[in-house]
Amino acid sequence: MSLVACCTHLLPRISALAFAWGLCARWGTPATGDRPRGWMDRLFALGPGAWRTGCGLLWLHIVGSWWLVHSASWQQAWRHTAEVTERLTGFNTGVGVVWNLVALAAWTADCLAGWPGAVSSATRSPARSRWRWGVESYLAFLWFQAAVVFATPAARAVMVVLCLGVAGVILTSRRRAG
Exposed, middle or buried, 56 (CB in 10 Å: 0-12/13-18/19+)? Predict the structure, then answer.
């Protein structure tokens, strides 16, 4: 696999998987009390590492693609994004470049802020600030766009299953802990 293919195809897909893992850990609810630790609890325990790894891989994807594919030109990146967006949605705009940079900045700030606080015994769910909820929701929206709307047909099928799996893990864990 070439370096360009790695930056443009492999890194964002692995970043999406790490994002999904971290999101499951953030939005799901780990077991509390004397329950045995199962696979879902291990998923939650590894969430912070997956979340930060996903952010780092997104950095590599954006910088690598900008440098290797777009010759370090924001104008070229904007034009390319506009062409792809028009081909897939009918809208001729490169604003996706800005949305991705905002996502990268927000995800990085979130990683630097640390993992959300411990589970509250009263609510049994992690305390989450409105800012953090907004960042997570924005990233989830963009992840869905990249994984489903802008993906290749083969990747789209896999990512739809992954989206359903993420929703299933979150809902199942909340019912189990509730």
Answer: middle
Q: What is the pLDDT, as a whole number, of residue 5? A: 75
Burial string for 129-144 (b: 16+ CB within 10 Å, else e) reads: eeebeebbeebbebbe
C-alpha separations of 114 from 40, 47, 51, 107, 109 in Å: 22, 12, 10, 11, 9
pTM for the predicted model, two decimal places: 0.78
DSSP state of 71: T
**Mean pLDDT of successive 10-residue stretches along the chain, which has 178 residues:** 77 85 78 59 81 93 89 93 90 92 92 70 55 85 79 80 80 63
126: β partners: 119
Considering only CA atoms, which of 3, 46, 1 is closest in space to residue 23?
46
Phi, psi of 31 (to 5 degrees): -65, 150
DSSP 100-145: HHHHHHHHHHHHHH-SPPPBPTTTSSB---HHHHHHHHHHHHHHHI
Dist. CA 70–CA 72, nearest whole Å: 5
Instruction: Give the pair of three-digit tokens for residue 98.
Output: 């800005």
Which two three-digit tokens encode residue 175? 């019912």
